[in-house]
Amino acid sequence: MAYGRTSEATLNSTGQPAGRSRGPRQDAVRNRNKLLDAVGAILESEPASVSMPLVARQAGLSTATAYRYFSTLEELISAYVYSTIVELRNFSHDCPKTGTVLFEAVAAERVRLVRRHGAATVQVRSRQGFLARLQAQDHVITAVRDIWERPIRAAMRQLGVADEHFDHALFLYNIMFDPRDILDLVATGLDEATVVRRLTRAYYGAVRGWVDADSG
């Protein structure tokens, strides 16, 4: 699996990460990506057995080397989850569509990526509520907002929903596009296009209903 992780690094004029010598930095990026790929594969296939020694062995590295990149298993898993978010963020930023068509395109990519590696990301869920994490500027939730701000605001404008309701519209997205539930829908026999169509229509209804509730 490849998630374009090295694109997050700051590059110098030679195309190499700034502030590091060429050879060691290439090795560092490669080893880090090996660990992220390994933990993702283990979380998908045998999540109960995940450990730093197992991840290191699957990545072809020593446990001591793995700990040089990630001080704890939780830090490694968090980095893996973030790497999957970056992939959707890049799609969202590059998508040229507008209005509800933009929202539906990003939603379709969300469902596709959940099918690809969602079984791994559902293993890690915060005990803190979404809005509390949003207000606290949690880095994962901030990245989620970065993905969805343009698509959701575009859909809101087309639906006639005021911008002041954005945080709650994002909150509703988080509820309705949970990867666990997407995987459940697919498991019932629905294809991706049907899942996207039904979830997006239900989402539009939920956003309208949230706003209409204020009017009595």
What are its keywords?
2 domains; mainly alpha; elongated; Arc Repressor Mutant, subunit A; about 70% helix
Walk me through this protein's architecture:
This protein is mainly alpha-helical. The chain folds into two domains: 13-71, Arc Repressor Mutant, subunit A, CATH 1.10.10.60; 78-213. It is 71% helix and 0% strand. The chain contains ten helices and no strands. The chain has helices at 22-45, 52-59, 63-69, 73-94, 99-121, 130-135, 139-159, 166-176, 179-187, 192-213. Helix 1 (22-45) crosses helix 4 and helix 1 crosses helix 5 (99-121). It is elongated, with a radius of gyration of 19 Å. The N and C termini lie far apart (49 Å).
Short description:
The protein has about 220 residues and is mainly alpha-helical.
What is the subunit arrangement here?
single chain
Largest sheet: none
Count of spatially separate domains: 2
Q: Estimate the mean pLDDT confidence.
A: 86
User: Which of globular, elongated, flat, extended, rod-shaped describes the shape?
Assistant: elongated
Rg, nearest Å: 19 Å
Low-confidence sequence ranges:
1-21
Q: Please write the string of helix (H) and strand (E) elements.
A: HHHHHHHHHH
Structural class: mainly alpha
The number of distinct β-strands equals 0
Percent range for β-strand residues:
under 5%
> N- to C-terminal separation?
49 Å
- Count of separate DSSP helical elements: 10
Helix content: over 70%
Layout of SSEs?
Elements (H helix, E strand, L loop, with lengths): L21 H24 L6 H8 L3 H7 L3 H22 L4 H23 L8 H6 L3 H21 L6 H11 L2 H9 L4 H22 L3
Helix pairs in contact: 1-2, 1-4, 1-5, 2-3, 4-5, 4-7, 5-7, 5-9, 5-10, 8-10
